[in-house]
Design goal:
Layout lengths: L8 H7 L6 E5 L5 E5 L4 H10 L7 E4 L5 H12 L3 E4 L6 E4 L8 H8 L9 H8 L1 E5 L12 H9 L3 E5 L2 E5 L8 E3 L5 H11 L5 E5 L5 H12 L3 E5 L3 E5 L8 E3 L4 H14 L2 E5 L7 H9 L2 E6 L2 E6 L7 E3 L8 H11 L4 E7 L9 H6 L3 E5 L17 E7 L7 E3 L3 H13 L3 E5 L11 H7 L3 E4 L2
Parallel strand pairs: 2-14, 3-13, 9-10, 17-18, 21-22
Antiparallel strand pairs: 1-22, 1-23, 3-5, 4-5, 6-8, 7-8, 10-12, 11-12, 14-16, 15-16, 18-20, 19-20
Length: 456
């Protein structure tokens, strides 16, 4: 019975998904069944912002019903964009014809912990000549400086003024093409340049750009709108600015982060999960590591099936920008590696604080030692970075129930997997954070046979 303990039946029916902040999970049973993944959070939210650039309405399809999407929808509506449900389930129609400026307080109130407001800068500068950015939040997994964004906007001719309220950005002489080289292939900064350059006067050359599948899908969205963008060798993107853009009709790329999360859940619980909507090409790097760790997968036209092949094996993993192993993938994988026979090493090179979640896994019985300065190894292929850390996982170690608090999106999902794999009952708190990136999470747990109750 997946009910709300201590709440009447009517409230249960109305608020099971939205009220699930605390789960009591009884683990030790395999997760088996089918779940569906929809559009990628990291594309849908950015494509919604891109709709501001069009002179006509846009339609975005396969949009996940997650809180990050609701945040962006609210921010667009604050700026006068009309957002309505589209002609099919999971689609949105976005009409920017009534776009207006918003106040710091309104933006801050709707943004919450999201960092998405910074990507409104380019489109708003083109549309209104001004953009306001309040203090930014987001998952506390490391320092995510906005200097890449601000430096890029200045290169386009923007003027950045800071105040106690936040940042006011203007373009008194309009925006022009720029020659930009990123110090690091940042996904957010690459999105910023794309969303700004498409309507800037002249040509923009972006070097050391991020090339994640979601970036390529955003480029596809912008090209549908009339943008001229070419991807060249060695992480170079060329954008020829155009005077105007139209709306788009686009179906989001699938969420490879969620697909990998469910794959790791199958591995950790010795389950068998079919992830509908998952595609092989965008997950090649993950699938290689999954296989090395003892996983088995079968690629179908409509998704990928994941389960264990044999006993789990230790692996060495280095996170990196695409086409490397995503930082979002290492957290759920580490849970499975606690059950591998031997010593695994995960080198985190993207964020400096993304291994903090392992403290709760140790509380549950895992043998994990974090090295704050990282580890050198002759087998490594990713260059060492000043901010990196490393986790050494020795297994197998039985996991047992514990009382844990979700710290961030991917770390929190990892606690969920650990609780489902552990013997006994776990209390997982602050589960609402997971709604930022996992659509209908409780329904999916039900479909896989998870044993839990919503207790708060």
């Amino acid at each position: 019975m997946k009910s709300l303990v201590g709440v009447d039946a009517e409230s249960t029916a109305l608020s099971r998904e939205t009220a699930g902040e605390v789960l009591a999970i009884r683990g030790g049973r395999p997760l088996t069944g089918r779940v569906e993944v929809k559009g990628a959070k990291n594309l849908a939210t950015k494509a919604m912002v891109a709709a501001l650039l069009g002179e006509t309405a846009s339609v975005l399809r396969d949009v996940p019903d997650i809180s990050d999407v609701q945040v962006v929808r609210s921010l667009l509506e604050v700026h006068g964009v009309t957002v309505r449900d589209g002609d099919e389930a999971g689609s949105l129609r976005l009409d920017p014809s009534g776009a207006v400026s918003a106040h710091f307080e309104e933006i801050d109130a709707h943004a919450g912990a999201s960092r998405i407001p910074i990507l409104f800068c380019g489109p708003l500068l083109h549309l209104l000549g001004e953009a306001l950015i309040p203090d930014l939040g987001g998952c506390r997994i490391g320092d995510r400086p906005i200097n890449f964004h601000m430096d890029a906007l200045r290169a386009f001719g923007a003027v950045v003024d800071k105040s106690y309220e936040g940042i006011r950005i203007t373009a008194p002489n309009g925006l022009h093409g720029a020659d930009i080289e990123l110090p690091y292939p940042s996904v957010g900064a690459t999105e910023q340049v794309l969303l700004t350059a498409v309507r800037a006067r002249g040509v923009t050359e972006l070097r050391n750009a991020a090339i994640e599948p979601e970036i390529m899908d955003l480029i596809a969205v912008l090209q549908k709108m009339g943008a001229i963008i070419s991807y060249e060798p060695n992480r170079v993107i060329l954008i020829e600015g155009v005077e105007k853009l139209r709306g788009y009709d686009h179906r989001c790329i699938f969420d490879r982060n969620e697909a990998a999360s469910w794959a790791c859940a199958a591995l950790a619980t010795d389950g068998d999960i079919f992830v509908g909507g998952a595609r092989q090409q965008e997950m090649l790097t993950f699938l290689n590591v999954f296989r090395k760790a003892g996983g088995w997968f079968d690629v179908h036209e409509d998704g990928i099936r994941f389960r264990r092949d044999d006993a789990l094996k230790p692996v060495m993993v280095e996170t990196d920008v695409h086409p490397g192993f995503m930082t979002d993938w290492q957290q759920p994988l580490i849970v499975a590696l606690t059950q591998a026979a031997g010593t695994s090493v995960v080198h985190e090179t993207v964020y400096e604080n993304r291994l903090g979640f392992t403290e709760a896994l140790v509380q549950m019985g895992a043998d994990i030692v974090v090295h704050p300065q990282g580890l050198a190894s002759p087998e490594r292929r990713v260059p060492r970075r000043a901010l990196e850390q490393a986790a050494v996982i020795t297994g197998p170690t039985p996991l047992h129930g514990a009382d844990v608090v979700v710290p961030d999106l991917r770390g929190g999902y990892s606690y969920l997997i650990a609780a489902l794999a552990a013997e006994g009952e776990s209390i997982v708190r602050n589960v609402g954070i997971l709604r930022r990136g996992y659509e209908k999470l409780l329904d999916k747990l039900d479909a896989l046979g998870a044993d839990y109750d919503v207790v708060g």
